[in-house]
Amino acid sequence: MPQTSARPLAIFGGTFDPVHLGHLSVAWEAAELLDAEVRLLPVSVPPHRAPPIATAAQRVAILRAALQGQSRLTLDTRELDRPGPSYTIDTLHELRAEQGERPLVLLLGADAFAGLASWHRWRELFAATHIGVLSRPGVATALPDALEREVAGRRIADAAELRAWPAGKVIELTVTPLEISATRIRELLAAGRDPRYLLPAGLFDDPALLAPYRNPAA
Ligand SMILES: Nc1ncnc2c1ncn2[C@@H]1O[C@H](COP(=O)(O)OP(=O)(O)OP(=O)(O)O)[C@@H](O)[C@H]1O
Ligand SMILES: O=C(O)c1ccc[n+]([C@@H]2O[C@H](COP(=O)([O-])O)[C@@H](O)[C@H]2O)c1
After folding, report:
1. CATH number of the domain that residue 85 is part of
2. ipTM, 2 dp
3. For residues 21 and 198, what is the distance between their CA atoms, to the nearest angstrom?
4. Does any domain span residue 166?
5. To test the ligand 2 pocket, which listed residue (11, 15, 95) has its Cβ within 8 A of the most ligand atoms?
6. C-alpha span between 138 and 39 (Å, rounded)
7. What is the number of domains present in the chain?
8. What is the tens place of the pLDDT at every residue in 122-174?
């Protein structure tokens, strides 16, 4: 592969049902550690889990409100425009066609990374992107054998090295541990609780934003 020196483009995909301060904080720190542009990509149809509670439009409205007031993290809604399951390999091929040899970095929480060998055409991911693994509280670092074998020769420790190649390296990103999950936030909202300090403050300004979780049957 040709060498490159462009500023990396990092993508952070998720169901974001809803986006929370755990997502935003780790994405922010990854942008700092990698000196990268970071885009949040909400999935349309998650390949490996039940459909989200909120619609795509509702999740995007929450994301837009959550991202207000800063410009380091941006929103990329391309997966919502594609029918069928949101396979990450398809997204990466689209981005590669747009970005040329610019380094791409797929950001994954440690839990999502540990499950990588079950993803659609997972071995092709390494030719399409670098991977940045975000530490997450309570997630063991041991990997299944097939994944460990694929990753073993790819690990790097210095983020600057990512710039030398468009794809193919794996870097652990040690970020501030925040034990926040969307599952917990949905439980709290469904129980009529107010998880104010687990979510960006702006989400509480408009009662419609979190309404899908307060009364999922509505
Ligand atoms: N607190 C966190 N710290 C580090 N990574 C996180 C954290 N929360 C989510 N992630 C990562 O964000 C990505 C998208 O996660 P997702 O939208 O499924 O959030 P979640 O909080 O894990 O949701 P759910 O509880 O519904 O499974 C995944 O790569 C996941 O590992
Ligand atoms: O491409 C796949 O097969 C695949 C399988 C599972 C998850 N993903 C992606 O991983 C990201 C995090 O997913 P999740 O389920 O933890 O929200 C999100 O962008 C998903 O599209 C992708």
Report:
1. 3.40.50.620
2. 0.97
3. 6
4. yes
5. 15
6. 25
7. 1
8. 999 999 999 999 988 888 778 999 999 999 999 999 999 999 999 999 999 99
Distance (angstroms) between ligand 1 centre and the Cα of 149 equals 25
4 in any annotated domain: no
Residue 206: is its pLDDT beyond 50? yes
Give residue 12's pLDDT band: very low, low, confident or very high (50, 70, 90): very high
* Residue among 216, 178, 213, 174 at smallest CA distance from 198: 178
Atom 5 in ligand 2: residue holding the nearest Cα: 119
Q: Domain range for residue 183? A: 9-212
112 vs 114: CA distance, rounded Å: 6
pTM for the model stands at: 0.95
Ligand 2: lining residues by beta carbon, under 6 Å? 13-15, 41, 43, 46-49, 86-89, 112, 119-120
Is residue 1 in some structural domain? no
- Ligand 1 mutation target, pool 39, 134, 188, most atoms within 8 A of CB: 134
Q: Choose among 192, 198, 199: nearest CA to 215.
A: 192
